[in-house]
């Protein structure tokens, strides 16, 4: 897999113009302007850059991580360093929109360098992209125009600080708009929860828990075709619990059933549930249920 350490080498690969700044590039179509069109296809590649782009009309399949997305509407897409990218000549990029690419070193020494790692949408797959309303689109365009002005001007001691501030504002708006998207897509949220519960139930019933151990969150997300971060964020917004917490609920319910079998030791129960270390199972059970496995078993006997 080819990896690009510099912004310039990445843009060269795409066939795009060299950046005005070694760590930052801004392409923005306004009026009758058009974005440069990247190469028609690519094998899997990675780079050390963040990308924020808005495409109004795109067709075809674009791979981002392990997920394919059929673009039928405009979307604001966020890509983090070292994410795997791939596309083929079936992808048609509409040449209106904007694309901001910046090397991770551009943020070094700033508050946003740490804050940007907390934005979950940089870990989302493209099929979880942010879809903007016309009003939201105009708000984002205003910020991008401000960034472009500073980018195109003769840069001085204030330029980077101003651009960083505008990027920070853009990301805060994106975070707000994602919150709105989660709220407005409750059907999808409910469907994800249903898919999650169905997968866990089948996993337990088929004996995979004993055979393969506790499934990872990444494995669950992959099976229901979403990214790990998007699944957790969606369930958190919908239910107040993360994916891990939902998985623990299933495990504890199963544990209660097995604990009622008196011929099994606590260690045997733990191993049957896929726990490698029985003490960890006991600690988790007590944390979730307020009783140790032994205390739970004794309490049931008394009843």
TrEMBL record:
Return the SUPFAM superfamilies for the record: Homeodomain-like
Residues covered by the HTH araC/xylS-type domain: 194-299
Enumerate the SMART domains for this protein: HTH_ARAC (SM00342)
Q: Which InterPro entries match?
A: Homeodomain-like_sf, HTH_AraC, Tscrpt_reg_AraC-type_HTH
Question: Where are the bilayer-spanning segments?
Answer: none
- Is DNA-binding among the key words of this record? yes
Q: Which UniProt keywords apply?
A: DNA-binding, Transcription, Transcription regulation
For molecular function, the Gene Ontology terms on record are: DNA-binding transcription factor activity; sequence-specific DNA binding
Q: Which Pfam families match?
A: HTH_18 (PF12833)
Q: Which PANTHER family match?
A: ARAC-FAMILY TRANSCRIPTIONAL REGULATOR, TRANSCRIPTIONAL REGULATORY PROTEIN
Q: What's the protein name? A: AraC family transcriptional regulator
